[in-house]
Amino acid sequence: MALARFLHQSTLHRCHLRPFQKLLFAAQRLLFSSGSSSSAPPSRRSPPPPPHEFLKPCEFLGSWKPASDPREAEARLDRLRKDYSKQVAQLRKEYVHEMEILRAEKQRKDEAKREAIRLANEQRKAAKSAAAETLAAQRKAFQEEFRQTLLKERAEKLESWRKKEQLREEKKTEKKDLLRQQSSMWISEENLDKRILEAIVDTTPL
Q: Which residue windows does the record flag with biased composition (Low complexity) (predicted)?
């Protein structure tokens, strides 16, 4: 009877746990599939970093061994201190040397940068000066061309005025000559009666 009750309880317990086990199994599968998809190798990988170079282990760590004699222990401790001081001094020298190298490199870079800036400024000034000279030459050429044009127009106007004046003088001279020729045939008042009488008598056309 007790065995039957135990089997019945275990069967009920399995029936109640079966949906939970299914849900847990589905969650594990989903997690595994998402992890595998996320951990898929990318199409382009970056190169692996170079291996890190570790420093050598310190010789002082674990180097002390207790001595039976206090004097020997003190002497050993004194030697360790001196060795440590020597190593610290050596490290300081190396550090100072590295700092000097870095300072020299920084100074070289700063000088190169200043030189590049100076050359750029000189090139910019040279280009600006060349542009100014070109503009000044163009302005001078334009002014000279304008001056020559004005001189040419002035000379043409002066020549035209001279021709007009010469033509006017020629016309005036021709008019005077014509008037002189006509005036040579004129009869003065003193000889007017005499010429009329002669014309009547001689019937000569005047």
A: 34-43
Tokens of 68: 């039976």
Task: State the average pLDDT over residues 105-132.
Answer: 95
CA distance 66 to 63: 10
Going by the DSSP 8-state scheme, the letter that residue 70 receives in this structure is H
Write down the domain spans for the chain: 73-206
Provide the sign of the torsion angle of the four alpha carbons 177, 178, 183, 185, taken in this order. Answer: positive
**∠ at Cα 103 (97, 109), nearest 5°?**
140
Q: The whole model's pTM is what?
A: 0.37
Chain position carrying tokens 């949906």: 19
pLDDT digits (tens, 9 = 90+) for 65-78: 776 778 887 887 88
Cβ distance 170 to 163 under 8 Å?
no
Beta carbons of 73 and 67 less than 8 angstroms apart: yes
